[in-house]
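[recover] target loaded
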């Protein structure tokens, strides 16, 4: 019995020392100490119309199963790790299924330096949310290879309301390394880099997540990217509007953009309803001509409109469980005259799901182990 009790206590000490949790894609300060598992499973029913054909796929599927661990090594160094335990095979390396794996140095309360696998420092509130919490996503979000190896430096104001971050990391284009002749797992040798400057601000009820980014392409030219995330937050409701623009060439301004708006209204402390709309397009003539000038976010000639409503229920008697439902409609049009491609797909999706968290540290504390 003494041996068993000693083992439990040693495990608890390890849990207190080694863990943390990520609430968003860009994390500045050390996070809470815990070891955590999180999972999500969904049921989807689709009605897909393309031309004269209609299909109705449906069924249950596992969405996420993640392991999170991290903590403070001392008063200057902290680390964080999030791994998708069950995921598709990576197209670049084993690290494809590792979202976060980084070491952070905090010389003082204002400065931070980070090295490792992290999210690209891109603005917008849809992008900022943890993937497991995104219930209805845009095409940009679906196709953004955001977790990359690199380094970052950040400065945070004394009142902790503003943060400026600069980052150099691998470009999302490394995931298309086959276009450059690299074998799977060697695409990082392509030397394609991403350069990002990011600002987050909190000004009363108004919050911002802004960024300017440059993503290096196969021809060693750049996709120029601007993301402006704006959010109003009040007691029972919040609204964010993300405005995104990117360009592959000097004459692309106004051709490639996305607008996303999401409104949340908390009927009770347990029950939230929300509505979300988005519009995306790519009318760049550069991308229409060559795979080496590919837009890695949205196919050339596309216009995509999405609308959706949904709910989230977090019961007060078990806040680690969330039940959600979404009804969404997507109109995806392709008009690429260079490739002689013209089609339209209309999709109605009904999604129901459950998310749950296993806070191992808290379980041990509550049971006195």
């Amino acid at each position: 019995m003494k041996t068993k009790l000693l083992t439990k206590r040693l495990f608890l000490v390890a849990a207190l020392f080694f863990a943390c949790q990520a609430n968003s894609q860009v994390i500045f300060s050390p996070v809470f100490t815990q070891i955590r598992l999180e999972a999500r499973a969904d049921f989807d029913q689709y009605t897909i119309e393309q031309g004269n054909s209609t299909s109705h796929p449906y069924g249950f599927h596992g969405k996420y199963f993640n392991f999170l661990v991290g903590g403070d090594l001392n008063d200057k160094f902290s680390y964080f790790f999030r791994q998708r335990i069950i995921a598709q095979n990576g197209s670049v390396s084993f690290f494809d299924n590792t979202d976060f794996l980084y070491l952070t140095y905090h010389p003082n309360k204002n400065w931070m330096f980070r090295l490792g696998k992290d999210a690209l420092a891109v603005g917008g509130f849809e992008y900022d949310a943890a993937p497991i919490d995104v219930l209805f996503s845009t095409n940009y979000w679906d196709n953004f290879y955001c977790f990359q190896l690199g380094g970052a430096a950040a400065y945070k104001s004394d009142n902790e309301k503003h943060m400026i971050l600069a980052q150099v990391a691998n470009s999302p284009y490394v995931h298309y390394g086959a276009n450059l002749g690299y074998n799977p797992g060697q695409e990082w040798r392509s030397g394609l880099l991403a350069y990002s400057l990011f600002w987050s601000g909190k000004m009363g009820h108004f919050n911002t997540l802004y960024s300017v980014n440059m993503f290096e392409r196969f021809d060693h030219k750049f996709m120029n990217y601007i993301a402006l995330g704006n959010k109003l937050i009040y007691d029972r409701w919040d609204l964010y509007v993300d405005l995104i623009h990117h360009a592959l060439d000097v004459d692309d301004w106004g051709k490639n953009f996305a607008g996303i708006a999401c409104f949340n209204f908390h009927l009770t402390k347990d029950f939230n309803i929300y509505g979300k709309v988005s519009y995306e397009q790519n009318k760049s003539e550069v991308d229409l001509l060559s795979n080496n000038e590919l837009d890695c976010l949205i196919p050339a000639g596309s216009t995509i409109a999405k609308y959706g409503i949904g709910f989230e229920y977090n019961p007060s008697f078990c806040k680690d469980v969330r039940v959600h439902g979404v009804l969404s409609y997507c109109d995806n049009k392709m008009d690429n005259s260079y490739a002689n491609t013209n089609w339209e797909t209309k999709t109605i999706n009904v999604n129901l799901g459950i998310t749950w968290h296993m806070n191992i540290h808290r379980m041990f504390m509550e049971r006195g182990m």
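[recover] notes: The chain has a mean pLDDT of 86.
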